[in-house]
Design brief:
Number of helices: 0
Structural class: mainly beta
Strand content: over 45%
Distance between the termini: 37 Å
Number of strands: 11
Order of helices and strands: EEEEEEEEEEE
């Protein structure tokens, strides 16, 4: 079965950077639309960024120009580089995947496979 495992979260001061990784197994990673989502306490889970198998990317307006999503199909790994972090970026971050080469829409309900999450705290 498909497994997603995030790593790289932590605490950082505003303006700093973090790099999240998501290791995948049990699936043909290259054929999956992959995404990063986040959920802050008391708020709904929201999309951060998504990437198709061709490398095409989409971003939430709140992170455009600061976050970069990328994938390494040879290593079955998804990455989120987060720069110029703000306190409002504080949340649990999740990677997610679905069997679809192109992302198109990338709402929470569109993804059946999820990791356990990694905490990001910006102060």
């Amino acid at each position: 079965h498909v497994q997603l495992v995030e790593s790289g979260g932590g605490s950082v001061q505003a303006g700093g950077s973090l790099r999240l990784s998501c290791a995948t197994s049990g699936a043909t990673f290259s054929r999956y639309c992959m995404g990063w989502f986040r959920q802050a306490p008391g708020k709904e889970r929201e999309g951060v960024a998504a990437i198709g198998d061709d490398g095409s990317t989409s971003y939430a307006d709140s992170v455009k120009g600061r976050f970069t999503i990328s994938r390494d199909n040879a290593k079955n790994t998804l990455t989120l580089q987060m720069d110029t972090l703000k306190p409002e970026d504080t949340a649990m971050y999740y990677c997610a995947g679905r069997f679809d080469r192109y992302c198109g829409t990338w709402n929470v309900a569109d993804f059946p496979y999820w990791g356990q999450g990694t905490q990001v705290t910006v102060s």
